[in-house]
Amino acid sequence: MHMSPDRRGAPAQQRRARNRGFTLIELLVTMTIFGIALAAAVPSFSTWVRNSRIRTVAQSLQDGLRLAQAEAQRRNRQTVFSLTNAAPGLNSTAATNGSNWAVHTVPLVGGENNEFLQGGSLGDMTGSLSIAGPAALCFNSAGRQTANALTGVSGARCVIDASTPLVAYDVTAASSSSGSSRPLRITVSLAGQVRLCDPARSLSTAADGCPP
Predict the structure, then answer these.
(1) Is the terminal CB of the chain with fewer CB neighbours within 10 Å at N or C?
(2) Number of domains into which the chain is organized
(3) Which residues contact 53 (CB under 8 A, 6 or more apart)?
(4) In terms of Cα–Cα distance, which of 90, 92, 111, 108 is closest to 100?
(5) pLDDT tens per residue across span 149-208
(6) Which of 129, 112, 101 has its CA nearest to residue 92?
(7) What's 192's domain CATH number?
């Protein structure tokens, strides 16, 4: 039987075969491969999002500590950095694992009231991240850590442990969602050096590692 060619010289039957598109089996195979690839990518993406949130919180915490230190030096008086679950302000209460931070001046001898300087959010905590560290930390006019039980901020009491003068704030994911997340640590030395580091690495072998 003679088949009439199309305008491009190909038989009409071959042209129809080329325009047929995907079969049902081909479509199912493609969707299955796509589903497998998507399932493999979701855990990695979730870990990336969680690690990004950890870094955001750690950097905000570091910024707040450095601000408190800089204000103590600029004003030539003690300041107190504190974590709080309330909106940062003059009457905010210090609390461990707070979702916000606040910086106040410490009252001078003679009954002067403290002053609220600045505060900020630690980012999206939403119960899946936690901060392990003291509720409050004080700096003196030289920018060094100092102990003070009378900070003028409710719940904020600055203590220096002679055995471990290096204060650490650990930002981690909650155990139920930790997976392969990467915790970060902010350390404050007795001399006032504020540093963000990776607790999984050693300072002796990596520039971003934490001291022992």
Answers:
(1) N
(2) 1
(3) 123, 124, 128, 129
(4) 92
(5) 999 999 999 999 888 889 999 999 876 454 567 899 999 999 999 999 999 888 878 888
(6) 101
(7) 3.55.40.10
